[in-house]
Amino acid sequence: MSEIRWKPSVTVAAIIEREGRYLLVEERTSEGLRLNNPAGHLDPGEGLAEAAAREALEETTCPFTPRALVGVYLARLRHPRTEEDITYLRFAFTGELGDPVPGRTFDAPVERTLWMSLEEVRASVARHRSPLVLQCIEDHQAGRRFPLDLLHTHPSVTLLQK
What we know:
Layout: E1 9-15, E2 17-18, E3 21-29, E4 32-36, E5 39-41, H1 48-60, E6 64-78, E7 85-97, E8 110-117, H2 118-123, H3 132-141, H4 155-158
Parallel strand pairs: 1-7
Antiparallel strand pairs: 1-5, 2-3, 3-4, 3-8, 6-7
Organism: Ideonella livida
Protein name: NUDIX hydrolase
InterPro entries: NUDIX_hydrolase-like_dom_sf, NUDIX_hydrolase_dom
C-alpha cells in the first residue's frame, strides 16, 4: 500500500509598517476582492528572505529588504468555492520598503495597495484572504523579531536554478 506524502504549501509574507500603518494589497480572487499582506509562494531555487523580497516587489512595485523574521505560521484553509483543502506554512518578514520602481506595475491579481491602521486591519477581517493576515500584523505590533540568521538555505537549493 502506498503512503500519501503530505506537502504543505510554503509561502512568504512582508509585514511592512510606516508611521503606525500597515501595507496591504487588495487582490482579486474567486471570492471577490480580498486583503492580504504582500505575500506569495516560495519558488524553486530561492531562499525564504529572497522570496519575500521578490513577492513584495511584484505586489507593491517597491523593493523590500527583509531585516527580521516576525514568525512562522501554519494554517489550514478550505477554499470556499472548490472545497480544496490546503495547509500553508508561512514565513513572515519585516524590513525596509523602498520607493516604487518607475514603470513597474502590480502583478496579477493585485489591484492596489493600501496603508491601513491596526484598527482598520482588525475591522476588515471579513475581507482578509487568510487568518494569517491579522496574526502576522499583531505579532509585528507586539515586537516579535527574530534574526535572519535563524534561517539557513543549503546551497543545494540554489543549484536548482543552474
